[in-house]
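Data availability (excerpt). The following record was deposited with the supplementary files.
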Amino acid sequence: MSIQNTENTSTETPAPEDSAHEDSISENSQMWTARLRNMWQRNLPIDKLLPDTQPAYVSSWIYVFGVLTIAAFVDILISGLILAFAGPAWYHTSSLGLFVNSLHFWGVQLFFVFMVVHLWGKFWMAAWRGRRTATWITGMVAFLASIGTAFTGYLIQTNFDAQWIAFEAKDGFNAVGIGAFFTPTNIGQIMLIHVALLPLVLGAITVMHVLLVRKHGVVPPMDALPEIEA
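Predicted structure:
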């Protein structure tokens, strides 16, 4: 008896399940989630979002103040949440409340000091170079939003300073015709704007600013080499 070895030269045809899966992937690529994911990966890949290294010039002290501003902002958010939940009676009479209130107050002072130094440093470095205009604009908008947040914070101190500032501001707002929409003497309205609205706005602008920094990179010094700046 002879045994013959025959080779199977027939090609496998794809199973119906595989074809359906490929059609499903092609269809899903047109969905808004896929478009959003692809756009994110094109504009901000993971190696830019979380880089392992930084250029040598980042070791200069002028680049520290952006991070210090964010650190002060985190302190303001945490202490502000504690103050908002505890209420004025607690942070005016309790020793712990006075301490948390001081943390919030001095966090605001450091926040503005760090932010002003950061802005001036980037201004003299022409930080809008290299298609970084949006980064510069979001930083300026964050500064303006911080002024409004600090102003409403002074109004809800519930002390003589807050009362004096509120009534002086009320006269000013009435003079320019917006007193009917924004009333500094309404403690409930000011509390809502200061605690719920402006921190969310400022936080969103800050996140956008940081993402733009990660996308375009840290602005190099004026005398940096062209290949480094690119």
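Summary of structural features: The longest helix spans residues 95-124.
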